Batch of 3 targets.
Target 1
Amino acid sequence: MLPYGRQSISDEDVEAVAAILRGDWLTTGPTVTAFETAVSELAGGHRAVSCTSGTAALHMAYAGLRIGPGDEVVTTPMTFVATASCAAIMGAEIVFADVEEDTALLDPAAVEAVVTDRTKVIAAVDYAGHAADYDTLQAIADRAGAKTLGDAAHSVGGFYKGRPVGDLADVTTMSFFPTKNLTTGEGGAVVAKDPAVAQRVHEFHFIGLVRDPARFQITDEGPWHQEVHEFGVNYRLTDVACALGLSQLKRLAGFTKRRSEITARYNEAFEPVDGVRTPAQRDYVDPAWHLYPVRILGGRRREIFEGLRAAGIGVQVNYIPVYWHPVFANAGYKRGMCPNAEQYYREEISLPMYPDLTDADVDRVIETLTNLVS
C-alpha cells in the first residue's frame, strides 16, 4: 500500500539522535534550547516553546492566552478536532465559522458575522499547508479586542505575503508528527509574539514551575527553591526528539520544494479531468503543502476512495466537520451550520503526499484516479 503520508529519515537524522543517546542529556537539556532557537528563527524571531504534540501546543496556547469559562473561541470546522477541543477543555464556548468555498480556509466574512464582545480568540487553520488570510483576520480580532491563533500544523515552512508561518498570528501552534512537514517523532511547538504569553505557555508546559527569584512568593528558602503559582502540565519535549527536529530543520527547504513539485504534477494532470477539482491557491501565499486535497465531484467520493484503496493507493479524508463529532453534536451543535465546510468534506480525498514519493509513485496515483473517475 502506497501511504498517503510518511516521514523521511536520513542517516544524518539517525546519527543526530544517536549522538544524544551517547551523551549526558536525554530529556530537557541544551538540545531542546537549540531546537527552540531554530524554530524561533524560522518563525520570525518570536519565542518558541517546544512540546510533546500539536495537540499539546494548542492546549498550551489557549492556556497562555488565558482562555476560560465565558470566553468564545471562533474557529473553523475544517480541521482536526483538537483545534476546537483544546479550547473547550479550558471551558470556552466554541463558535464555528464557515470556510471559503474553494480553499477550505476560515472565511473572514463568516468570522465577522459571529464575533461578539465575548470573543477572545479567532483560531484559523492553515488547511493542507496554505496559510489563512491573517491580515484580514487580525483586523477583525483587533476590532473585537481578541487575539489570533494560527494552527500551523500543516504549514511549517510556508509564507504569506512574504512573511513566514509563525509571524502571522499573535500565537502560532505547530505539529511535528511523522506525516507533517518535519518531524520530531511526536512533537509540536508554540510561537508567541507577546513575551508574557510565551512565558505563560512555557510555565504551563513545565508543570507551572516558576524559577525566577524576583517572582517568588516564598522568599526564605534556599537556592534549590522553585514554586507553582498556576497549575500546569508536563508537555516537555526531549533532547532526543529535538535532535531529530534540528536535523530535520536542515532538510525543511528540500521537503517543501519536493512537496511543491508533487503538487504541481498532480495539478497539471488533474485540472483537465472531468469530475475532479484541484486545490486552490492564493497568489499571495507560498504554501508548504502538507496534503494534496483533491475533490471528487458528482457524489462519487466514497466510490473513488474505496477504489483507490483497493488499488493499493493509501488515501485519507481530512476532515469530518468538527461539530459532527458526537462530543459536539451531543452538546447541541447542528449539521448544516457551515455549508461550505460540509460540502468540502463530502468531496475531499487526500492523495499521497510526502517528500520521498517518487515521480513514478505520483504517476501511479494519477493514472489510477483518472481511470476510476472516467
Target 2
Amino acid sequence: MSTWFLTGASRGFGAHWAEAILERGDNLAATARDAATLKPLTDRYGDRVLAIQLDVTDRAAVDAAVDEVEQRFGGGIDVLVNNAGHMLMGAVEEVTPEQARAQMDVNYFGTLWTTRAVLPGMRRRRRGHIMQVSSLGGLIAYPTMGIYQATKWAIEAMSQALAAEVAAYDIHVTLIEPIMFPTGLAANSPQATSTPTYTHAREALYAESAGFTAGDPAATGQAILALADTPNPPLRVLFGTNGLDVLRTEYAGRLAGLEKWDHISRLAQGNPDQR
C-alpha cells in the first residue's frame, strides 16, 4: 500500500486521480483550497483519506501539511502529485501584473514548495516518485497562453534539474504533459480582459486547437496508476494523442532556425579559433 500526496484533488484531473488511487486501496492525502469539497472522499473511503485545506502558495502551510501526512500514515509519502493550479488566458499585454504574479505563485512556486517539502523524507527512505502536472504548453507556447505556459516552462526546467539531482537517492521525477481534456480548468480560472487588439491571436489559438481531439479525463486515472507502478518511469510523458506530431514540427523548426542563424552565434563567440 502506497501513500500519495495529491494537490488540487477536488476537481478536474485531481478528482479522477483521487478516486483511482483510493479505489485500488492506497492511502491518500488530498488537498484543496476548501477542504469541504473533499468530504465525499472522506465519507466514502474513511481513514484512508486525509483531507487537507491548503493554499500551496503558503510555504509554511505546505511544510505543515507534509508533516501531518507523514505522522498520520507512517512510512512517509511515496508519491507526490503536484496538480494544483489555474490557467490564465490572455495576451501578454492584456494580463495585469497582479494576474501574472498570482499565476506564477500558484503554478510554479506552489509546485516548488510541495516538492521541496517531500524531498527530505524521500531522501531518508531512498525512494519516492514526484509527478509534476505540466502541459503540452510546457514544451511549446501558443498565443494568448504565454503567461500560463511560462509557469509550465519553469516547472519543466526545475523538474529536469531535480531529476538529475535526486536520482542518486532512487527518487524519480515525471513531468505529465496533458494535451486537451475537458476538465473545466479554464472556466474555473481567472481570465484577462480581452481586447480587439489581439483578436487575431485568439483566432490563431483556436485554429491550433482544432487539430486536437479531446481526451477523457477519467481515463487518466489508470495512466497515473501505471506511472506509479513503473520501476523506471519517464522524465516526460504525454497524456493524450497527436502531441508527438506537433512536437516534431516544433523542434525541427527550432533547430532549423538555430542553424540558419549560426553565423550570428559564431560572430558572438569572438574567438576566431572557435568559428
Target 3
Amino acid sequence: MARNAVQFQRGLSEAEFDRLYGTEEQCRAMVISARWRDGFSCPVCGGRSHSEVKTRGLFQCTKCRRQTSPIAGTIFAATKLPLRTWFRAIYHLTQSKQGISSIELGRRLGVRQTTAWMLKHKLQQVMLERDARKRLTGRVEIDDAYLGGERSGGKRGRGAPGKTPFVAAVETTAEGKPVRLKLRRVAGFTGQAISRFALRSLDPSCAVVSDGLACFSHVSDAGCEHQAIRTGSGPASARNPTFKWVNTALGNIKSAIVGTYRAISSKHVPRYLAEFEYRFNRRYDLASMIPRLGWAAAQTPPMPYRLLKLAEVHG
C-alpha cells in the first residue's frame, strides 16, 4: 500500500529550523523583508531614504526624521520577547498535526504558560485573518458540528448547553480529492446563519452537497447549487462516502481538541478552528508554512493582550 505523501513528508527538522531561524538577526531580517518587500518605506511620509539607529533597532526616515520599529504595526508590536521565540512558536504551531497546548508550548519555549497562551493566540489570530476572505469553489461537502459536550443534567443533542456550533466545509476536486477546508463558528443551525456563512465563505460557483438538515438549503442565498442527501443518523451516516472528507476533517479536529486541549472557551473557538484550517490548507508543504506565517504575521495589525483575552472572536 502506497504511503500517504502528505502524512510522510519530511517537513522541517529542528536542526534545519535552527540553521534558518536560530538567531535574532535572522528572525529580524525575515520580519523586515516581509514588512517592506521593496525596501523601507516611511509610514508617515512614504520616504525611502533612511538611516538605522542600531542601538535601538530603529529605522529613521531621512525626510521627516520619523523613527520606526520593524515590528510596529505588526502582530509582534510591543513584544518584550525575542523574535526567535516567536519564530520557534511558529515552528511548533505549524509542524504539529494535532496542535500544541499552551502548557506544552511554554515548556518548549522556556516561558510561562500565560506567555505561551498569548503567543499562540496572537499567531492563531494571524491565521484567522489570513484566510478570512478566501472562498471555497467547485464541489463542496458541508456538515454541522459542535465543540463541547453535555453538561450534567442538561439537554442532550442539538442546542445542549455548553456546545459551540460550527460549520465544516471541504472543497474537493472533480475526482473527489480534498483541496481546502473552511471552519466557521455559527450562532446556530438556522437559515440565516447558514446564509451568512455561505455569503462570506462560498463562491457562487460552488456545488454544495449536504445532509438533510434544512438550514443548508440557504447556501442558495449565495448563488450556490445545492444537493441534499439524507444520511440518517448514527455511525453509519458518518461513513457515507459522499461526505468522506468533511467527516475525516471533523474526526481529526475533534480528536486533536480532546487529546491536546481537553476543552476550549466558546469565545476563542474561531481561533482554534482557524489553526486547524490553516494547517490543512497548506498541508502539502510543511516547511513553507514557517516563512508564510512569519510573512502574514508581519502584515497583521497588533492585537493587544487585553483584547485577545477578553474580546469575543467573530468567525
